[in-house]
Amino acid sequence: METTTAVKKYTFKDFTSDQEVRWCPGCDDYVILRSMQKALPEMGVKKEDVVFISGIGCSSRFPYYMSTYGMHTIHGRAPGIASGIKLANPNLSVWIMTGDGDSMAIGGNHFIHLLRRNIDLNMVMFNNEIYGLTKGQFSPTSLIGQKTKSSPYGNTQPPFSPGELALGANARFFARIGGNNPKDMAQIFIDAHKFKGTSLVEVLQNCVIFNDGCFDEVTDKEVKEDKQIFLEHGKPMIFGKNRDKGLVLNKLKLEVVTIGENGITQEDILVHNAKEEDKTLHQMLVRLDYPLATGIIRSFADVTLEEREDALTAQVKANSKFKKTDDLFFSGETYEVK
Amino acid sequence: MITTKTILQPEVLEAVVVRFVGDSGDGMQLTGTQFTDTSAMFGNDIATFPNYPSEIRAPQGSLYGVSGFQVHIGSVEVSTPGDNVDLLVAMNPAALKTNLYAVKPGHTIIVDTDSFTKKNLDKAEYKTNPLEDGSLENYRVIQVDMTTMTKEALKDVEGLDNKSITRSKNMFSLGMVYWMYNRSLEHSFDFFNKKFKGKPELIEANTKVLNAGYYFAETLELIPNAYTISPAKMVPGTYRIIGGNTATAWGLLAAAEKSGLELFLGSYPITPATDILHELVKHKHFGVKAFQAEDEIAGVTSAIGAAFAGDLAITTTSGPGLALKGEAIGLAMMVELPLVIINVQRGGPSTGLPTKTEQSDLLQAMYGRNGESPVIVIAASTPANCFNFAYEAARLALEHMTPVILLTDGYIANGSAPWKIRTVAEMPAIKNHKVTEVKENWSPYDRDEKTLARNWPVPGTPGLEHRIGGLEKDRVTGNISYEPQNHEEMTHIRAEKVRLVENNIPELKTEFADSGDLLVIGWGGTYGSLHSAVKQINDEGYNKIGFAHFNYINPMPKNTEEILSKYKKIIVCELNAGQFVSILKTRFSKFEFSQHNKIQGLPFSNDELIQQFKLLV
Q1: Is B154 inside any structural domain?
Q2: CA angle (B425 as vertex; B424, B427 as ends), nearest 5
Q3: Cβ neighbours of A305 in B, within 8 Å
Q4: Shortest Cα distance from B184 to chain A (angstroms)?
Q5: Residue in chain B lying closest to A8 (CA)
Q6: Which of B161, B490, B519, B561 is deepest in the core (most CB within 10 A)?
Q7: Chain B residue at shortest CA distance from A108
Q8: Which chain B residues contact residue A325 at CB under 8 A?
Q9: How far apart are CA B455 and CA B471, in angstroms?
Q10: How far apart are alpha carbons A44 and A1 in whole angstroms?
Q11: In a domain, B78, yes or no
Q12: A64: nearest CB among B241, B328, B467
């Protein structure tokens, strides 16, 4: 709910707290923090209306570094707290800052129900495929075979794909972005804010200490244009350094083709429709290994929980004979004792 | 068809206990409620207790499918639903078998003989028919072919299927009981007209059957009709019959209106607390935001979020749910937000006895969190005063900026009693610590000098942006602090804040004797049983027995020690293995405490209490 009064023009400094940032040097978390601080002035929201909520983990230190309202809560439970805040005051811009372990292991239940309900709030998931704060155990996104402190001989538990899980839980907005791409990340944060409903942004966040380089194959500057496809609504699904690769649908699978080869022209390339209700293609994009889909993959505008609740409340209020609790207490069967 | 040989003498009674029992589908809850409401309007004092199986639709006629409703009506003060039954209405053999134990010898049983078929007797595991084998010789058994007579009464009503006909036989029994206790039928007629609006055949059927039962009882002059229970002497005013869970929900509504805050409930269904959720979701017209969460943890965390955002925030649960909420309650304590946690206790541990009552979550409420984590703990003691204590829980949470756990239990939550309606204007004021002004060197941990409550700046307020969290914080600035001395100091501040609540609660009162040989102590939902037992023993001539009942457990009333010192002996009675007594022993080690404990999922009975008290005097 946008406020009508003029919002002061902020700069990123207005959103920077006086607390010393204590993430490891070189961590992508710094990129996320700065991108958010740069995105916020562009959102047209008052500083006092912004709330950051986190659970536990490296990501969850985030609220302390913002000069907005915030709460650092308990492991996995930020979605519940954020939901309560938003339902109590729909005027607020509410952000959940979470990690792969916080959101999908201990908080997995809250994660799926948050996405199912579609309350108008935002979640940024710092996915580094490892537990950082507890110093290096495998997480629900760690790969099979990955050696960690709790899997010295290799991880045996198959991972979740956050996007697949989110779409399975009926996420209306899902975006993915590399942790080394502050510019697009800031824009995605702005779009997530503007989206009415629950938005989930997965950041592929490099952990320099316990899982360094885990996304290098796709996020490295040298390879990212060839290994990633940055999706934009209404634009053809083209990628590659030479902008000559594209995606087409071949039977029930997405296929990479080269424009100019085998008679393929730009006309043959799929056009991204993030706003489509049917999520079949979004799911295929989320599952794709090569190229890895980044950008806003799904952005389907749906009725929010607040809208449904507000409509019901208005209806009940209009039809109710109860204005004050006394009306209720004295209603129905009462009797006098003299 | 009364089987006792002697002619019955009419009786005048001060109070009577009636229990209606039958199959889950026989409509016993409805019958009991009708009798209760009619008697309340007549001016009797009332206490009720429903008793139904946890199976939703148990097989017909089975022993575990029996559903019952007990009501105690009196011309004198009635404080419990009663131990022994004066009149048992049993709609089938299984109902008779499972409830006979409660009937006082010489008292009355009404049975539907039509249901005493071979099949039903087998299901109830009766080898011979108890109506014929002499096993009921010590009771007045009124045998009525209720199903047959119901059918007869309805033979001219058009548009009724067979099921509706048999289902209205409960009204036949109600009609008989109305006649026996000289009750007017009008209230039930009104009820039929409302309940079956648009279904004239059902209004006609129920009216006819109720009348048929009433006139049948009148015609059979053998039924004693001198149970003239006069109206009770009650404080004048407007009353209604209220159940404990409804009273709890209404107390919260009143607190929200009085405090000017919006009410937020985060909850997850659990027996026997769910009725509070059911009640609050109805009241969207008051702006109530009731959020059914995905689990107990999300129930409490959403409430913590709402508290941070400035609502009067509530979560409701029962024992196992309180265990799940523990970590989050610790967070609310640490960030010092007002939060009301209502725990309708049931039999534990683990899943335990979900539909039965117990007081075994006291220590969990006191200590069931990691670290030094004190919260306010209070307990309601009657169905009607659930209203007051829900209100009180909200008041204390808001005035002291801390979580409050309110303990009720299945017994008072499901029981009902007359409630003298309180208007919101009559209720005590509720302050809160919201701030909007930006002062120099302001901190979210600035405290009120008297209560140590911190201030409550809520998101949306310009200039008061701040971060709170579960990590230890600096005493002054509220920033994260690992400083050893600060942690110890903050631990003491949080404890002291809860201790200071003693200045904001009433003193402990005693009843019957303010000093003497024995002090009977209870807390929470056992008030009714203990009160009536102490009253009875005093009536018998032991006049040096006092009674003190605790509603405030943490902190306790200031005068607790003074009261303990006025009696030679102390006995603490609880429906657990001795939880409150263990707290008392630690706090007041110079006194010797006896204890009486019961862990059967049942309330205390009068007799067992009196027997215990007599051993000590």
Answers
A1: yes
A2: 65
A3: none
A4: 15
A5: B462
A6: B519
A7: B294
A8: 250, 253-254, 257, 286, 424
A9: 19
A10: 11
A11: yes
A12: B467
pLDDT, residue B180, reads 86
List beta partners, residue A69: A51
Using CA coordinates, name the residue in chain A closest to B232.
A337
CATH number at residue B420: 3.40.50.970
CA pair distance B463, A117, nearest whole angstrom: 32
Q: Of B402, B426, B450, which closes a domain?
A: B426
Instruction: Tell me the domain boundaries of chain A.
Output: 12-235+273-311, 237-271
pTM recorded for the entire structure: 0.92
List, as ranges, residues 134-163 from A with C-beta within 8 Å of B: none
**Chain B residues lying within 8 Å of A87, measured CB to CB:** 264, 289, 291, 302, 305-306
Residue B471 lies in a domain: no
For domain A12-235+273-311, give the CATH superfamily: Thiamin diphosphate (ThDP)-binding fold, Pyr/PP domains (3.40.50.970)
For residue A69, list chain B residues with Cβ-Cβ distance below 8 A. Answer: 459, 465-467
Query: B414 CA to chain A: closest CA distance, Å?
Result: 19
Residues 6+ apart with CB under 8 A from A266: A236, A238, A246, A259
Strand order in the sheet with A245-250: A238-239, A245-250, A253-258
Q: Do B215 and B336 sit in the same domain of this protein?
A: no
Q: Phi/psi zone of residue A154: left (φ > 0), alpha (ψ -120 to 50 degrees), beta?
A: left
- Interface ipTM: 0.97
Q: Annotate B519-538 with b (16+ C-beta within 10 A) or e (fewer).
A: bbbbbbbbbbbbbbbbbebb
- Single out the residue of B511, B13, B450, B549 nearest to residue B228, CA to CA: B13
How close is the nearest chain B Cα to the Cα of A282, in Å? 26
Q: Identify the domain containing residue B386 by its residue range.
A: 241-426
The closest CB to that of A63, out of B305, B462, B467, belongs to B467
pLDDT level of residue B223 (50, 70, 90 thresholds): low
Mean pLDDT of chain A: 96
In a shared domain, residues B544 and B400 = no
CB spacing of A66 vs B471 below 8 angstroms: no
Question: How do residues B561-578 score in pLDDT, each as one tens digit?
Answer: 999 999 999 999 999 999
Identify whether residues B534 and B568 lie together within a single domain: yes
Of B234, B241, B470, the CB nearest to A74: B470
Q: List, for residues A208-247, the tens digit of each pLDDT value.
A: 999 999 999 999 999 999 999 999 999 999 999 999 999 9
For chain B, how many helices (H) and strands (E)? 20, 21
CB pairs under 8 A between A and B: 200
- The reply to whether B388 and B290 lie within a common domain is yes
Q: Is residue A151 helix, strand or coil?
A: strand
- Domains of chain B: total: 3
Q: In this complex, do A88 and B262 lie within 8 Å of one another by their Cβ atoms?
A: yes
- How does pLDDT run across B423-444, given as a tens digit for each residue? 999 999 999 999 999 999 999 9
Domain boundary (B399, B426, B453) is at B426
CA distances in angstroms from A270 to A232, A255, A259, B366, listed in the order given? 12, 10, 12, 62
Answer whether A77 sits within 8 Å of B423, measured CB to CB. Answer: no
